[in-house]
Write a structure and sequence with these properties.
Two copies of one chain form a homodimer. Chain A is α/β, with parallel strands linked by helices. Chain A has three domains: about 60 residues, 434 Repressor (Amino-terminal Domain) (Orthogonal Bundle); about 120 residues, Response regulator (Rossmann fold, 3-Layer(aba) Sandwich), CATH 3.40.50; about 130 residues, Response regulator (Rossmann fold), CATH 3.40.50.2300. In chain A, the strands form three sheets. Chain A has a six-stranded parallel β-sheet, with helices on both faces. In chain A, helix 2 crosses helix 4. The longest helix of chain A is centred in the first third of the chain and has 16 residues. Chain A is elongated, with a radius of gyration of 27 Å. Chain B binds a DNA duplex (30 and 30 nucleotides) through helix 3 and helix 5.
Chain lengths: ~350, ~350
DNA sequence: TCACCCTATGTAATCGATTACATGCAACTT
DNA sequence: AAGTTGCATGTAATCGATTACATAGGGTGA
């Protein structure tokens, strides 16, 4: 395919339209390229007349600075990498939107990397940042990457500003944007307890996940605050997916002595859970209450509608992007931002019924 | 901050880690930069010994080619722009995943632009592509952009390979990846009719949307095939969102003479619809059947589970990315790819009940 | 009036990789 | 043996914008 290269070049007629260069603009405006560049970057350092001529020439030629050239010289890409574990997860998409909005307003583009649990991909994108393809990165995956292979040589690593979103990265000295998972989980647990529930099951996130650890601590906090004992038998493993909720539900249905309330640490799991319970003939919330976490769009229209913890997803994205932009532009950025959550009461949770 | 430039240079100690350049590798391997470049791009044109030395030097220095420099010279960015109307929509996120996967395997990165209905954003990204920041673009928004302002000057526009996904762009001579919306809608309509339903309502997508037009035609096809008359009163405007489904549902509940089945042209609307009907005391599917379109994750766990049209979303994304990569690499790419849909039968649709 | 400073602008080095062209050398042809 | 071919490699031009440094001209103060 590269053999075509010469043909492209030889062709005198405009087979392919060439974009205007800064040279073209300079010629048309009768100034030097330096003046054109300055007219755009630091208008106050150019005389009004020259600036006007330059702007006119730009309009006439449709000039747009070549980003590769600009980036090569100035070592800035105006691109930000967003690393996340699963692009198709509803929870992330709204956060992404918040990030994109904010980045866009500041003139940054967004490159997305869906790690999909693949270490190779992770390595690739670590190299990607190291190669200076992006000015900064927002991590939604709960850990730093490019874990320095300690071996000989110790290749020089470029470090760029990072921000951790949602899954705080312990020990990393970077801005972290998060909600207070522990407090929120505690609050939900206490809410369930306050409705009379004594046997409250907990469907967890993936083991070792930082969110999970926080929420689990919050769950225990809540139990303690309500004076309830912690029963390991009521902890059901999950991984935030619908399927995990379904599996957890099947396990519950099969039990002789069922809990009267289930706290699922994601809405997806809660919805899968409710589905399974209902299919098995149990009534939610009459026979068993189900609570979620996240407040995704579908929580409000689930049947029954889901009591959950509202996370300000868009705002989280915006805050992360803002923090990163602060770093990129040399401003101080807050080291830790905690956004408030809200307990959203809907129909999937009800006071303990007399019998059960 | 650029004043540091000299300091960097003067400073012998590593104040700031500089990424290895091709020069460094060349020196270490005792070859020229051209050989290093060739060892990477066209290994067969370099002697095995030289190649080995180069690779070793690369490993030792952790060299990664500077993408800005590479792109400046070779006019390639290895980046693809994906333009979509709403990033937070569940429907798109799985498609995105398919796109990302495929692009990644081919060595391309993905830049996402969420248009969010903003013409300015659209203009910005049109300029973005024109500036050569990406090698190609995948459009999910149903129309081309950068609508040439015809005025004087006629700025030179760089044109890059494009691919349209899902919403075919009429008149555009670019590869289009889609499903047969019309046939799928017809099929669903006939399915409803075959169960005895005579009054079938249709909840539409946004007016002027190409998907909508196709599906609407399919709906009419289906009615005709089933020998049912088309009744404009049974067409309810929507826009694919949950809220639209809720509103449409409220409208239905208020009616004196209700349809016995509703075909919502998105799962989101169907779920909102079911929610509203159930809240109003109607039973789904006993009193009224509800069908959706898309088969998003939540369709299977809705209550009742949703009968819908399955779209192979991940495959759609993959196909679009493949087609684009074909274009980018000078290979021929199919002009039109149609992936198959599937009618998924679940619980939200049932045969017409005796009474109603 | 001279020295000095400040502003507006131009000249040219620079960022780092790719690649056209040149060169040197070995192998093969006649 | 001279000429031809072809491979491996090096040299240096090139991509397009930014920006350090140089310079010219106008204004101010002594």
């Amino acid at each position: 395919m590269d053999d075509l290269g010469q043909a492209d070049r030889a062709e005198p007629e405009e087979t392919r339209i060439r974009a205007a260069r800064i040279q073209d603009v300079a010629q048309l405006a009768d100034v030097s390229t330096a003046t054109v560049s300055r007219a755009l970057a630091t208008p106050e350092r150019v005389s009004p007349e020259a600036r006007a001529r330059v702007l006119e020439a730009i309009a006439k030629t449709g000039y747009v600075p070549n980003p590769a050239a600009r980036s090569l010289r100035s070592q800035k890409t105006f691109m930000v990498l967003v690393v996340l574990p699963d692009l198709s997860n509803t929870f992330f998409s709204k956060i992404l939107r918040g990030i994109e909005e904010t980045l866009f307003e500041a003139g940054y583009g967004m490159i997305i990397s869906d790690l999909d649990g693949s270490p190779e991909k992770e390595a690739h994108f670590a190299a990607f940042t190291a190669a200076g393809r992006v000015d900064g990165a927002i991590l939604l995956n709960g850990h730093l990457f490019g874990q320095s292979r300690e071996g000989e040589g110790q290749p020089a690593r470029l470090t760029i500003p990072l921000v951790a979103l949602c899954e705080a990265i312990p020990g990393a000295d970077i801005p972290q944007i998060e909600i207070d998972n522990r407090a929120a989980a505690s609050r939900m647990t206490q809410h369930l307890a306050s409705l009379g529930h004594r046997r409250i099951a907990y469907v967890s996130g993936p083991a070792n996940n930082i969110l999970e650890r926080e929420r689990f601590l919050g769950f225990k906090d809540g139990l303690e605050a309500a004076g309830l004992p912690f029963d390991p038998a009521l902890v059901i493993p999950g991984d935030y997916t619908i399927e995990a909720g379904i599996r957890a539900g099947q396990g519950l249905v099969a039990r002789a002595e069922r809990p009267t309330a289930v706290f699922c640490t994601s809405d997806e799991m809660a919805i899968g859970m409710m589905r399974t319970l209902l299919s098995a003939g149990l009534r939610v919330p009459h026979d068993i209450s189900v609570a979620g976490f996240d407040d995704i769009e579908f929580a409000a229209v689930a049947e029954p509608s889901l009591t959950t913890i509202h996370q300000p997803r868009r705002e989280l994205g915006q805050a992360a992007a803002s923090a990163l932009i602060d770093c990129l532009q040399g401003r101080a950025s807050p080291k830790r931002i905690r956004l408030d959550t809200e307990l959203v009461l809907r129909d999937s949770v009800a006071p303990l019924q007399g019998g059960a």
